[in-house]
Amino acid sequence: MPIDRVAALSAFVRVAEAGGFTRAAEQLGVSRARVSRQIAQLEDHLGVRLLHRTTRQVRLTEDGRLLLDRSRDWLDDLDDIESRFDRARGALSGRVRVDMNHAMARDLVIPRLPAFLEAHPGLSIELSTSDDRIDPVRDGLDCVVRVGTLADSQLIARPLGQLPVVNCASPAYLARCGTPRRPADLCAGHAVIYYVPHLGNTVPRWEYRDGDTARFLDLPGVVTVNGTMAYTEACLAGLGLIQVPRVGVQRYLAEGRLIEVLTDYRPEPLPVSLLYPHRRNLSRRVQVVMDWLGEQIQSYYLV
């Protein structure tokens, strides 16, 4: 049976980056059996073993590592050629996979997505919403939007700006515990809610700016959560004070369901970045989607 080398190489690269057949098949939108068959055909065609397969993991052989580097470059070149013809036709086609936090997707991207897709009917968007630090390479994503300080990685970062962060609490909480005027007031009878990406891995602290200096208070948290939605809901329920990007609670502040406090002692603003895997040639459809996301975020979120 003739081998479709483009499909087989694409499947091989996805398996290598995802670390397994099941995850790669999910990303490609095909069955695991089909991906396994494509890899087997590619190995037979080349006459070498590309992957060491065990019940728990897939590892590249020495030949597999060599092919992975060459395949990435070749597929990038092919994508670039196709993008040039798309540019000549004035059309974009294909799938773009994006990840961002739930609030950004809900409040910004999804409401504006119909107009964008109407302008580019050949595109399809796969939108992942997660508070986790997803690995774009492993999970087959084209780009991710990240809020906060970036960890060192092999990803390319496009800075978009900064999000102002506010301190706030519910009216019921303030009626019960009083309104803090200075950070030191938090040490006497106030409750703090903390957000951490992974429970138990870090010891969170309350942050505030004193002039141009960032300072921290080691305050015990009455509640600690690992989800942004739960973080806001805990504050709305009157459990304590939170520090949150203003845009995420803007409607609650406007409705009076939350009240900003310690306005002279806000934390440092949070950087917002677009991250994408290193590619020699970034496809035009991904560039267009990233440019659009950057424009929406900067116009709506950043001040």
Write up what this structure looks like.
The protein is an alpha/beta fold and about 300 residues long. The chain has 3 domains: about 5-85, Winged helix-like DNA-binding domain superfamily/Winged helix DNA-binding domain (Arc Repressor Mutant, subunit A), CATH 1.10.10; about 90-155 and about 270-300, D-Maltodextrin-Binding Protein, domain 2 (3-Layer(aba) Sandwich), CATH 3.40.190; about 165-270, D-Maltodextrin-Binding Protein, domain 2 (3-Layer(aba) Sandwich), CATH 3.40.190.290. The chain is about 40% helix and about 25% strand. It contains 9 helices and 14 strands. The strands form 5 sheets. Strands 4-3-5-14-6 form a 5-stranded mixed beta sheet, with helices on one face. Helix 1 (about 5-20) packs across helix 4 and helix 2 (about 20-30) crosses helix 3 (about 30-45). The chain is elongated, with a radius of gyration of 24 Å. The relative contact order is 0.15. The mean pLDDT is about 85.
Please give a handful of descriptors for the protein shown.
3 domains, D-Maltodextrin-Binding Protein, domain 2, 23% strand, 303 residues, alpha/beta, 42% helix, Arc Repressor Mutant, subunit A, three-stranded antiparallel sheet, 9 helices
What is the strand and helix layout of this fold?
Layout: H1 5-18, H2 21-28, H3 32-46, E1 51-53, E2 58-60, H4 62-89, E3 94-100, H5 102-119, E4 123-129, E5 143-147, E6 156-163, E7 165-169, H6 171-177, E8 192-195, E9 206-210, E10 213-217, E11 221-225, H7 228-236, E12 242-245, H8 246-255, E13 259-261, E14 270-276, H9 284-300
Parallel strand pairs: 3-4, 3-5, 8-11
Antiparallel strand pairs: 1-2, 5-14, 6-14, 7-12, 7-13, 9-10
